[in-house]
């Protein structure tokens, strides 16, 4: 049995130090610096491949695994399929309960409540964002989202080269850190395709 930590922030300019400090008791820590809106995160995928039966996945807050009920449920199911468990540091401790089955049951109930809370928080954020955008459009002040990558971005250009060389979207994500859905959107936007391999004509031996 090992304690495996997972830390996540939403963007590359945010700091993981506070979470890493809280996870120092873990034997290994996986990290991501991208949104928790889906599970296509290199650190999370590596964590799910690494954990074994009996391991404990430790996070500082439940929202580090995901920001909505669907994604949280998917990740938690993936962890449980490995016969591992989850420990959330900001949730009430149940160490005083000796019966393991009761402790697991109460832990799952608490996590379900926090999943619901995370979903409500996510929906509230989306609602207020939509209302703010609608108001800005009405006033003629809405400029839209700033693109993540410019056309001359070195990391995006490297990702395009990897794709052209035969790498899959997932492999590009692991190598460059660019979310594969984001990368797929950008390569379609810029018309990036793989070269069609030349098919050699068979030699004519009739003469």
Number of separate structural domains = 2
Q: Please report the number of helical segments.
A: 7
> What is the CATH third-level topology name of the largest domain?
Rossmann fold
How much helix is in the residues?
40-55%
Q: Briefly note the structural class of the backbone.
A: alpha/beta
If you compute it from the alpha carbons, what radius of gyration comes out, rounded to the nearest whole angstrom? 22 Å
Q: What is the assembly state of the chains in this entry? A: single chain
CATH architectural designation of the largest domain: 3-Layer(aba) Sandwich
- Strand tally: 4
* Main CATH class of the largest domain: Alpha Beta
CATH superfamily of the largest domain: Resolvase, N-terminal catalytic domain
Mean pLDDT across residues: 80
**H and E string:** EHEHEHEHHHH
Low-confidence stretches: none
Q: How many strands, which pairing sense, and closed or not: the largest β-sheet? A: 4 strands, parallel
**Distance N to C terminus:** 72 Å
**Biggest sheet, spatial arrangement of strands:** 2-1-3-4
Instruction: Based on Cα principal axes, name the global outline.
Output: globular
């Amino acid at each position: 049995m090992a304690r495996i930590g997972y830390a996540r922030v939403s963007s590359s300019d945010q700091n993981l130090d506070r979470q890493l400090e809280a996870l120092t008791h873990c034997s290994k820590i996986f990290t991501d610096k991208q949104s928790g809106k889906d599970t296509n995160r290199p650190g999370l995928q590596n964590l799910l491949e690494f954990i074994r039966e009996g391991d404990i996945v430790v996070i500082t807050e439940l929202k580090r695994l995901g920001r909505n009920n669907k994604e949280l449920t998917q990740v938690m199911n993936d962890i449980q399929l490995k016969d591992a468990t989850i420990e959330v540091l900001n949730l009430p401790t149940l160490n005083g309960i000796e019966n393991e089955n009761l402790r697991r049951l109460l832990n799952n109930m608490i996590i379900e409540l926090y999943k619901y809370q995370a979903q409500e928080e996510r929906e509230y954020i989306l609602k207020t964002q939509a209302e703010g955008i609608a108001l800005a459009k009405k006033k003629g002040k809405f400029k839209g989202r700033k693109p993540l990558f410019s056309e001359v971005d070195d990391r995006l250009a490297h990702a395009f080269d990897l794709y052209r060389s035969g790498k899959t979207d997932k492999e590009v994500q692991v190598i460059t850190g660019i979310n594969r859905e984001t990368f797929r959107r950008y390569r379609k936007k810029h018309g990036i395709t793989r070269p069609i391999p030349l098919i050699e004509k068979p030699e004519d031996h009739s003469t």
